Amino acid sequence: MPKRLLIDMDGVLADTYLQFFRLEATVTGKQVLHNDIIGLAEGDAFPNYKKYIHNDGFFRDAPVIDDAVEVMEKLNKIYEIFIVSSAMEFPNSLREKYDWLQEHFPFLHWKQIILCGSKIPVQGDILIDDHFKNLDPFQGKTLLFTQPHNMGRDNGHYRVDNWREIEGVLL
């Protein structure tokens, strides 16, 4: 039986930070720089964070993180993959996330998508996520996907900076 690989969506597959940078520049005219937000939670880095994530299209229009599609396609042939994404806090994101996954990852079956409130009950062998709140309680192997909010600490998780590194670790 293949190993179960759980993969977060926002900040791992979908480039939500690029969305925040774009919206901040468009809405406020302020150019937020990557180095200025290292170690800051998204809500602290982007004052309009809550407004942005509740806007229609925020999750639907996020760009795909480089190399995610190609590497995911390879992983999907070897692992039992589930996309596990928190969506209940932002109910309008349910449809947007599903549609986004169908567009960018058409090789994933709808049964491989878990949109939930908490990831804690979802278990597997490996979890790739960018948030410690999801990685810390996980019982299996963890890969911390680098994003500005988690830079400067790793909490004992194996850090990966991009999808090519994930490919090297898991394939």
From TrEMBL:
Gene3D superfamilies: Deoxyribonucleotidase, domain 2, HAD superfamily/HAD-like. It comes from Galbibacter pacificus. InterPro entries: 5'(3')-deoxyribonucleotidase, HAD-like_sf, HAD_sf. This is 5'(3')-deoxyribonucleotidase. Belongs to the 5'(3')-deoxyribonucleotidase family. It comes from the Bacteria.
